[in-house]
Amino acid sequence: MEIKRYPNNGCCERLHLDVCVDERTPRDGILELLRKLRPEWKTEDIQIKAFTEGITNQLMGCYVGSLTQGPVLLVRVYGQMTELFMDRGKEMEMFQVLHKHGCGPELYCSFTNGICYEFVRGVVLDDALLKQPSVYRLIAREMGKIHSIKSEKTGNCSPVLWSRLSQFLNLVQSSDAPEQQKSSAHVEAPSLKIIIKEMEELKSHLTHINSPVVLCHNDLLTKNVIYNQEEGTVKFIDYEYADFNYQAYDIGNHFNEFAGTSNVDSSLYPSGELQFDWLTAYLESFKRFNGVDSAVTKKEVLKLYVQVCNFSLVGHLFWCLWALLQAKHSTIDFDFQRYAVARFNYYFEKKQEFFGMKLP
């Protein structure tokens, strides 16, 4: 097994193991990783549990003894062809930046087709927890903390949104791969011509909305939030899309995710009352971590609310294109084309309500 160490853009050194884990029979590859990472663990005692929440990659927890009591190491095996549209170097950089600021788990190593990292104890959020004030305020505060992390690079950081959308669109247009899975609902894929038209209209509109560019998670669905009730904390996991982006996009994208993934229900989009309470907690945190007076006015909350409503729209097109790509390449058992259609329809429903919204 070849071992390499890479510098990581000014962050701490990154360990890389030249091991490939077979997604169909992963145990042998995982054991090879553990011989280096956890040499004190006896092979016969190692247990591996598959987690099923993800729809992009395979995730497995490795432990000796008890999953709930002892140390657990997570192994994530990348989904097929995801390297086409994901910057794995950026993902590992984000792991280390967020861990350095106390916002994320430790990255143990990368390997040929995945990464190993620290297990975050707690429960994955469900719809009921997501709407509990004590929990969603924790999420808002944690996002405010992450958004306050400054770039270690000189100069301004450009938002990744439009370049990623263009990348996804180009990949969908150029891909001649047949869909890996047929849609169970036999739905017709959304029209790329219409998506392009809507993207251009949104870009023209949103560039006039002065949303700050901050360090964003960019994929804060419920399954990427871990809640530890005993400690009264939340942590965000999975940084495949983390990068600098528009503040209002990251918040709006999270609000969109209240509608769910397996069965998208737009009626679950958070109420105005919940949004205002969430945004107040967020602004208090964002200001505090930026070293300014954390008092928040109604005018500030209303301004951010309007920005979030507008930016939330582009999130639907982003995940629609993402799902069309996954439908062509992923081997994971999920109806990506049906999801693309659901987000496409969700977009047009919310566009009537949000597009062009301005401060009263």
From TrEMBL:
Name of the protein this chain belongs to: ethanolamine kinase
Pfam families found in the cross-reference section: Choline_kinase
Class of enzymatic activity (EC top level): transferase
EC number of the protein: 2.7.1.82
Pathway in which this enzyme or protein is active: Phospholipid metabolism; phosphatidylethanolamine biosynthesis; phosphatidylethanolamine from ethanolamine: step 1/3
InterPro entries per the UniProt record, alphabetical: Kinase-like_dom_sf
Record's keyword terms, sorted: Lipid biosynthesis, Lipid metabolism, Phospholipid biosynthesis, Phospholipid metabolism
Taxonomy, superkingdom: Eukaryota
Family membership noted in the UniProt record: Belongs to the choline/ethanolamine kinase family.
Lineage start: Eukaryota, Metazoa, Chordata, Craniata, Vertebrata
